[in-house]
Amino acid sequence: MRKLLNQELNRKTVEEFQISEKFPIVVVLDNVRSLHNVGSVFRTGDAFLVSEILLCGITGKPPHAEIHKTALGATETVRWQHFEKTEYAIQYLREKQFKIFCLEQAEQSTFLQNFEPQKAEKYAFVFGHEIRGVDQQIINLSDGCIEIPQFGTKHSFNLSVSAGILLWDYYAKMDKFGASVK
What we know:
The protein has a single domain, classed as Alpha/beta knot. The chain has a 7-stranded parallel β-sheet with strand order 3-2-1-6-4-7-5, sandwiched between helices. By secondary structure, the protein is an alpha/beta fold. The longest helix has 15 residues. The protein has 6 helices and 7 strands; from the N terminus they run αβαβαβαβββαβα. Strand 2, helix 3 and strand 3 form a beta-alpha-beta unit. The two termini are 15 Å apart. The model has no long low-confidence stretch (mean pLDDT 94). Helices cover 31% and strands 21% of the residues. The radius of gyration is 16 Å and the shape is globular.
């Protein structure tokens, strides 16, 4: 077994990425304070060809050195918008007929393993502030909450880890990997 070189990975160029068809997924960051988390979500969004990232409220936005540090150029590939309030982003998504799910521990949340996305639907996943989570008002405006089960002493995963887990699970369930995975 030999580790592959970067040029052997057959990744898209920035130009190829920009013209490629994106998956009907939008990531919403609701008042995320960590610029490292923002950058990491951009990098994950690039890896999974998300349509767009919506940065809301106090969430930092590019260009910023701390975002760039973890995004590693993904702010140049993934489309993004900033909304003064997360409610405005939700309204924007509703107008485009997205199903909106918050990643949050809530009454009647659906455990990730039980979440069954439908192929005909477009999805937006909302990730919240690292300490306070997704604002209750945004939960009230959503179609539901998804919860990642945990078994240790901590109350939550890091936001960027949660985004990676949820997006990977979505793609696996939607069989988006298909021929692209060996």
